[in-house]
Amino acid sequence: MRFPLWRRRQDDDLDEEIRRHLEMAARDRVERGERSDQAASAARREFGNIGMIKEVTREMWGWGTVDRLLQDTRFGLRLLRKNPAFTAAAVLSLAIGIGALTTVFAIINAVELKPLPVRAPGDLVYMKHPSFSYPIFREVQARGQMFDGVFAWQMRDLNVRWSDDTESVPTLLASGGFYSTLGVRPQLGRGFVPEDDVAGAARPVVVLSHATWLRRFGGDPGAVGRTITIENVPFTIIGVEPPEFFGVAVGAAPEITIPVTMFAQLRAEMRDALRQTSRSWLHIMGRLRPGWSRTQADAAFQVIWPQALAATASPTLSPARRARYLARDTALMPGATGFSSVRNQFSEPLWLLLALVALLLLVACAAVANLLLARGCVRQRELAVRVAIGASGGRLVRQLLVEGLWLSLLGSAVGLIVAAWSARVLIGFLSTRAAPVTLDLTLDWRVFGFTAIAACLVALLFTVAPALKAVRVAPGDAIKSGRQMGTGPRQSRAANLLVASQIGFSLLLVFGAALFLRSLGTLMAVDSGVDPVNLLIVSVDPPAGADREAFYRELVRQLRDVSGVKSASLSWVPPISDDMGGWNQAIGIDGAEPPDGAVEDVFFNAVSPGYFETVGTRLVAGRGFDWRDGRSAARVAVVNETLSRTRFRGQSPIGRRFTMNRGAQRRDIEIVGVVGDAKYQRLQETTLEIAYLPHEQVEFIATNNLVAEVRTAGASARVSGSIREVTRRLSPASPIAITPLDDRIRDSLVRERLVALVAALLGAFALVLSCGALYGLMSHTVARRTNEIGIRIALGASRAAVLRLIVADTLRIAAGGALVGLMLVAGGSRIAQRFLFGISAMDPTALAAATSLVLATALVAGYLPARRASTVDPTVALRSE
């Protein structure tokens, strides 16, 4: 309010000054003998044009440009309000394009650009390549003079009993310097101190996330000091994190944080993890000391890194393995935005989607430019009159730019509303049951700035052609002419070019959608080597202190007895393991030891008897496992066809041996069967060499959890309740997860499904916008050529000939646009190939389908105006002339 009041005071002061000046001048004239009325008139004449003087004075104040912009703004808003149909069409087109662009950028901002909610995030760095052992962390911590603080962290799911119920909870494992290094102060209580992060600490402690504190304890400050049970170990709650803090893993939302040293006490398989140098499981981050740049710190770090490796190298390593261990490299990477598996998985697809929505925005810009060109025809006389009375070309261009900017701002406002909703919907497609994604999608200054810049660029893009036309207005001809501006062939060229460009970009988007959908279909049709129909993956932990071997045998037995269950088995790596990891190492054939330093290219799985029958992997030769293949029996294995073909060159591997490990850990294993190839982790992988071992003959399985596979006779959902009851009786305090294998396969394709879905939506929007513009152009053409068409019909032209005439014009524009689109397709094929599976980026089927769809839709868009043209009454048309 201060600005207009200040301006009003200035105007009032100017009016008062002019009034006093005129009064003084009139008084002087009266004193010289003139009559008062004559003196006032003479003073005004002598003073000059008051309005012009005011304008000159305001110009000297520097507000002339602002005044003219305000005038243009008010005039533009009045025009938009008087043409609601035009305004709605333009704003809706821009809202689709800008909303889609803002949606994808908001997710990119949350995943890649937004800094961590900690103190001075720009000072954080993390160690590349990406996980390390606990002894290496301790060495870096001891030697890292470039760090003001350093910590190790890892995300795991742990079983937590809050009161009576137990559930699997995402947990952040962090070393003692976690909160102090990040500069995060808990909202309640305290964070970790070094004494909390000591192996065998007397009092295990835990810090709750703010959301967990609200959900589990209703925001009660008395929660600090209470006890919860994690993996059957009581932990004391010592603090609650601030609401905006989520750790350093963008996309994750850990509910609790515990000291990393406690993990070794909670899980038997991690008992030696704090001493093992070969187990890489921790991420390492640090804060640089004041005055250190990342370049300086990395140079100093490269000096201490070989020392840390040498200090942690195991003396039992062979020379080749020791050399390979000491050759490991790493570097300090910027850590302001944290470390994110979501970023690693979805960064490339998100940037691809940003490029696709930018293309959609170009289509929307062309659509609005066409609307403005058509509207310019209606405004011909207005623009001509303004030029005739002295308006410069620059003033006309500025007026049209202001109008375009208002359209763009209105479209951006609607687009922001759309983005705030659609970004959350899109995140739902990134999340899976096994790996939920939680992001802060608050629209911050980056999103608003990006949208504002996009709005300005968009306004410039779609107003260029109409503004150039406005500059070339000939006022005399326009005022005298009865025709509207832009009705000749030359004037229609710009509109045709815009529509053709829309069709070209639309073809590119539709072709991209067809490619990604075909790629997804090809991927889903891949033979996984297992039968996912009615196959459940059941995960349950044995009770604390239970005999694991006996527990799993009893679990399989009771699962087989459930009504509706055909078979059940166990494995360490379930089919399509994806996020559940794997096991690979090198082997030697027929007594030869694995070559030292060889590529670990054979993948292993530990499975129970009945595994192949349960998952549906066919037995090709030999036999599978039975319960006699126990710990004390001869060591045996079943291999897949790829390993048999690669290692034994077409000869039967039955009865032959391969060797795992060296020295005291050497194991010679006889091959007793060959099974069909099956995918190991993901459908996208090439066929791997896989060897299966009886689970009771694998030593480390004694301290690791297995999963059960259950084949049901009918719909698996009806049997899930009975399966849950059985597992609950065997392990009452453990969380139970029952997942159909179909769901696991679908979750493993989340990237491909996201790209295909969004590309299909963008292609559909682009097709609607471009064909709507083509329909509008041909309708305008028919209206412009009504007299010509009437004459043609009066001279004997048939209705079909008129129909062919308009349809031919439509197809010429569509064919030109399709040609542009094909050139764009050829230029973008290399980028698209990185996201495709099993098909070429120039797939002829997808290209033919996209081109046919675009041309067919264009034909429909042009047919409707053509049909209306063919029904023109020549007498009415000629009379209007």
Describe the structure in your own words.
The two termini are 55 Å apart. Helix 17 packs across helix 25 (799-833) and helix 18 (548-561) runs antiparallel to helix 21. With 881 residues, the chain is an alpha+beta fold. The chain has 5 domains: 2-62; 81-114 and 345-486, no CATH class; 121-336, no CATH class; 488-525 and 746-881, no CATH class; 542-734, no CATH class. Strand 18 (657-660) and strand 19 form a beta hairpin.
Write the layout of secondary structure elements.
Layout: H1 2-31, H2 36-47, H3 50-61, H4 64-82, H5 84-113, E1 124-127, H6 134-143, E2 147-161, E3 166-174, H7 178-182, E4 188-189, E5 205-208, H8 210-217, E6 227-230, E7 233-240, E8 256-259, H9 263-266, E9 283-288, H10 294-312, H11 319-326, E10 332-334, H12 341-378, H13 380-388, H14 393-430, H15 445-471, H16 475-480, H17 489-524, E11 535-540, H18 548-561, E12 565-571, E13 584-585, E14 587-589, E15 602-607, H19 611-615, E16 619-622, E17 636-640, H20 641-648, E18 657-660, E19 667-675, E20 689-694, E21 707-712, H21 716-730, E22 736-740, H22 741-748, H23 750-784, H24 786-794, H25 799-833, H26 844-870, H27 874-880
Helix pairs in contact: 1-2, 4-14, 5-12, 5-14, 5-15, 6-10, 12-15, 12-17, 12-23, 14-15, 17-23, 17-25, 17-26, 18-21, 23-26, 24-27, 25-26
